[in-house]
């Protein structure tokens, strides 16, 4: 059984990035999990987003791509506004992966990450004054990024184009042959993925 990589992001603004990364992953013998490809098994009578979280639980790895859009609210959220924090579907996918111990690689558009740093330095005045940003459409994107940073042991990489994500995945041996050849040995697959993630975290913190 091939390792399954869940690609999590907002859809319309990152559609072509998702497609590009998915094709790249498949050329290395891995499977991708994306709703637009029909990889989510929806359950009748259950909100669609909950099926996404279940699919995440059954994945071996997650690629989270963050751009300027925050995304729609989960089925359990009340109607949001631009300046009230709520949990988006993409953010809940991240929370699900983290709570399940699934390795997560985070890629944030460079322009959004630069604006996040401005936001972090001026948080109170920005929120109170209704300050607007160019790349990020909602300041909830920044609170999402802050949550990831606060966890402290998750790989975060800025990118300007999809090729930078692909270069990162090759450089850090995401497609290591030892993972691809494990077939149905789920325990061994999990152990090898954990080793790769730990090696990457050491590199990022040195």
Q: Could you give the distance between the termini?
A: 35 Å
Strand tally is 5
- Name the structural class: alpha/beta
From the alpha carbons, calculate the radius of gyration and give it in angstroms.
Answer: 17 Å
**How much of the polypeptide forms β-strand, as a percent range?**
5-15%
Task: Using the alpha-carbon principal axes, give the shape.
Answer: globular
Characterize the largest beta sheet: strand count, sense, and whether it forms a barrel. Answer: 5 strands, parallel
Question: For the residues shown, what is the average pLDDT?
Answer: 82
pLDDT under 50 segments (min length 5)?
Answer: 200-206
Instruction: State the helicity in percent bands.
Output: 40-55%
- Listing every helix as H and every strand as E from the N terminus to the C terminus, the arrangement reads EHEHEHEHHHEHHH
Strand order of the largest sheet: 2-1-3-4-5
Number of discrete helical segments: 9
